[in-house]
């Protein structure tokens, strides 16, 4: 999928009046903006289990009630490692 998102980006930029724009979507949507050099940052959110739908990350469901505190964030290349306490 390739779409020219430049007109949409121009409209979003005008509406934002100097504020940040938060683009929420999947890889195809992000790719369309990246193809035209329109992304400044990429923020990836990982919450497949706590949202209650979609493919579970682990074989059993770990609800957000069992994930107590985010104790570590580490980047190794393109990988992000998030460490939560579960007790």
UniProtKB/TrEMBL annotation:
GO terms for biological process: riboflavin biosynthetic process. Residues 16-76 form the Bacterial bifunctional deaminase-reductase C-terminal domain. Gene3D superfamilies: Dihydrofolate Reductase, subunit A (3.40.430.10). Coiled coil: none annotated. Pfam families: RibD_C (PF01872). InterPro entries: DHFR-like_dom_sf, RibDG_C. GO terms for molecular function: 5-amino-6-(5-phosphoribosylamino)uracil reductase activity. This is RibD C-terminal domain-containing protein. It comes from Actinacidiphila glaucinigra. The lineage of its organism: Bacteria, Bacillati, Actinomycetota, Actinomycetes, Kitasatosporales.
């Amino acid at each position: 999928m390739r779409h020219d998102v430049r007109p949409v980006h121009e409209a979003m930029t005008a509406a934002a009046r100097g504020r940040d724009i938060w683009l929420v979507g999947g890889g195809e949507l992000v790719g369309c903006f990246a193809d035209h050099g329109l992304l400044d940052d990429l923020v990836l959110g990982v919450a497949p289990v706590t949202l209650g739908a979609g493919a579970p990350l682990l074989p059993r469901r770990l609800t957000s009630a069992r994930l107590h505190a985010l104790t570590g964030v580490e980047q190794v290349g393109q990988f992000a490692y998030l460490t939560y306490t579960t007790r």
